[in-house]
Structures
1.
Amino acid sequence: MMKKIVFLGCGSMGEAILGGMLAAGVSPQSVVVTVRRPERATELAARHGVTAMASNEEAAANVEAVEGASVVILAVKPVGVTAMCREVADALDSNAVVISVAAAVSLAQMEAALRPGQPVVRSMPNTPLKVGRGVVALSAGSSVDEHHLAAAHEVFDGSGVVLDVPEDQQNAVSAISGSGPAYAFYLAEAMAAAAEDFGLSPEVAQVLARETVAGAGIMLAEPGANAGELRRAVTSPKGTTEQAIASFDKDGLPGLIKAGTKAAAARAAQITEELSAAN
């Protein structure tokens, strides 16, 4: 069981993780959050019952917050992760596990900004964490043991599915699940546009596309569900769906999706290099 948990930064994704933790039974009295603006600190304290501090009011808020913490979650933007690590490094307990939720920031970059031997975990969460249907991939640093990794799992267990992957697979994870919700939304946009081409009103088109994609997602989330099997169950021989799938295949849709994910993964690797050069 985690003791003191600290969020350094708490934007949309950080608050989604925080909400999932609290819903899973973590006591708000064990959580400290730091943000820049006093208004945001007041908002988080009122909404979740946690202790919230504003660095614009108290310059040492981040350092004070991490003292005695067993888990520290870095929920700042990628460009600010290593600077935050350096700011709090000397105040961290040597056994505290530091978890980053920022894309493209490597374990090596974080470990170099912290004291030697500090346990570090890199995570790649996605936005459906906000509705408790997220997926998170964790990669453990060189000083992480099974207890540190278990604590990292506990952070995210209330918000979705948690997987362990080698760090060299994190860019692929980012391209599939990190960016993936946008692909589903893009599909819904395209379906709605197609519906309007048939003469349906924009309002009806939006409902049809939105509820179809959302409903299919719920079916896919059922235990043991398989995307290929579900698709084949809807695709009757010589039926309308079969014609649509054949058209998608002819136009190379699977190849386009594969190319897009490769482009996303390549960009993630490029961002890592840019952040490394900047720090």
2.
Amino acid sequence: MSYAISGECCSDASCVAVCPMNSIHPSPGEPGFGTGASLFIDPRTCIDCGACADICPVDAAQPAEQAAPEDVERNAAYFAGADPLDAMDLDSWEAPSYQVWGGGPRRVLVVGAGPAGMYATRELLLRTSAEVTLVDRLGDVGGLVRYGVAPDHPGTKQIISSFERITQHRRVRWMPGKDASDLWAERDRNGWRKTGAAGSLPERFDAVVHAVGAGGSRRLGIGGEDAACTAEDFVAWYNGRPGSALPVELAGPRAVIVGNGNVALDVARILLSDEDRLRGMAVAPEVRQTLAASGITEVVLLGRRGPDEAAYTQPALQELLAAAGDRVELRYHARPTAWTADGLALDDGTTIAAGNLFTAIGFEGTPVDGLPFDPDRGIVPNVRGAVVGRPGHYVAGWIKRGARGGIGVNKACAQETVMTLVSSSRVPASPGS
């Protein structure tokens, strides 16, 4: 499935900025921009992330199966005869002919190879002649694209190959499976010796971009919650994230999922997939066998607020209902009070009998060693990406703006951070300075 832009397009190009695959044209500066009635989405490169629909001020970006057939045909026709466009392709990249980065830093460390880190690296390569060291504690690039996107959405994951090409650029030193704290060290005759915390700059770097995401799951704060399974753990397990394991034993026939976002719907859809559907997914055999043998045939999706405040998108809901509509119950305005052997107790005195409880109420950032931290917002305090009070340190992605927004939002977020980095020689002392 791809997205298409309808005839009501306002051509303000906000969708262009967030598209992770540069699939929307003509963009500002390209021939035809501002002269036609619409922008267009290339169906060959669209990864169905929905970033354009989330930001479109007039709701013109729609899933192709919901758009008018003539609009789908018009989008495809715009790109007929052209080579597929991929703004992440670095094969012909050279150092830019201009420099926004005056006499600033030239050696940059990017911590985290998820979307925010990869877009920050890409932007540094485009706008400067800097050498970039990219580290991630996992052995692959992609972050939540690789280990968070559901396995029945393979199209969304195709952006990973573009991220991998970034690591092959001649000005990128890619260090997979590396803890960034090792870089705040120097070698002496006895081995590695720490020389400073993350709040300082390693001697061989001029700037650091922290794109470490939000590593913790939000909690309900109810009794018995430790016996539940977070969406983070469940998703990491079925996607094969290194070191992950299923922390609970799946037990049917009913499961309750607290949460009303797209991740909650992903969990429900995977739990209710039959063996034929599971065989079509890129999951490990043991994951497929465990899911098929779970005995879970019914899911209750529990929202603590009303349907108008649900965070899932309509395409995600329709996909779930199409796959298992008669086995999904949507319940709203429900407040859990405890998870017990009998099931999930609610504040109205009732209990939903279930064998498993899953919580999918979002992520929250965790402190970064050596940097300031705002626990209420779950972010490192920053001004347009520049860490407050830590010259040379920058943030991008969820640790910068909070755990919200999909793949495409990270593109604009990283661009802002890098523009701050290359255009500023000092960091404001406080957000208001």
3.
Amino acid sequence: MATENFNPALRTPASSRPYPKANRGYGKRSAPDQRPVHADDFTLLPERERYIAGYVDHLPDGAAMDIKSLARSIPLYGQMAVGSALRALGVAGHLRHAQCRIEERGQVRWVTRTFWSRTARDNEWWGAFLDAENNRATQEAAASTAPQPPPRVPAEAPVPQAGAQPPAPAPATPAGPAAQPASPAPVPVVPQQRTPEPAPAHPSPAYLALAQLGRLEPRLALSAADCTVLAPLAAQWFTRGVDTDYLTRALTSGLPAQVDSPIGFVRRRLNDKIPPGLPTTRTPATPGTPLRRLMVECTECGTPGHPEALPDGLCRPCRTPALGPAPTAPADPPVERDIHALVSTLRDLMKTP
């Protein structure tokens, strides 16, 4: 006897292979204050969106959430269907795409994060949540760029050498007017030795780029003191948008057969080959206005913007349905043609060689 399954939600099959992991900084991020998993989750969604939502809900944080990765893991639907389903889930209040600004090693990049909520949320809740995430990202960036105090090194007590005898007590001299103070023994003069300058506790990207020059090109081997002196000049390159590879190629390309003074040669190239500063296309922020590090991304076209400018996760062009062509006046009825004359003309053309 056949039994009918009254559960409207499709059961997501267990994957036999591990979930695709996104690159560091990307991937799924679970929103807080979600209700526990229940059998009637996503029951109000259509069949396709309900199936994809159940699969996404089981993904761990950090899993890949791009359309291609989801389409490879879900055999029932292709990329077009997955993209349409993600857009519908964004309108239903289950997910938002956002671009987060990350600064690492003197470089700035934007990563795409997908915030997921099993519980459907409205636009006001998503706006407050994304503003809180933006404030948290701003505080983390400020804490990472704040100068760290140097570590305090406790003073070490002199350690007695093994086998050394303790100093003998000085003989007591009788107190009296005849007692004369002993003349101090001459102190031998020891020439002062130069101590090597220690490397910084938190080396900058410019210092690290200069330190590895000697390993890539022995003719440009620099000491720790040389790297400390040249680090401010190399830091000016990073402020103009170049990376470590660009700086290394500029310093090591076209070397002469012999370099007598590596520090002088590198200093000359740092001053002569510094790249030009590229003009930025962004509007400079007014003083006192913090830089926004989290921008909501349109689920359909990927256009970034503020949360209030993208309700339901869609920008205005994607949210407004495309209008059809403007109605035109009805065309005039076609002029009656002489069918017999037309057929006669066609026959004559067919007879022409």
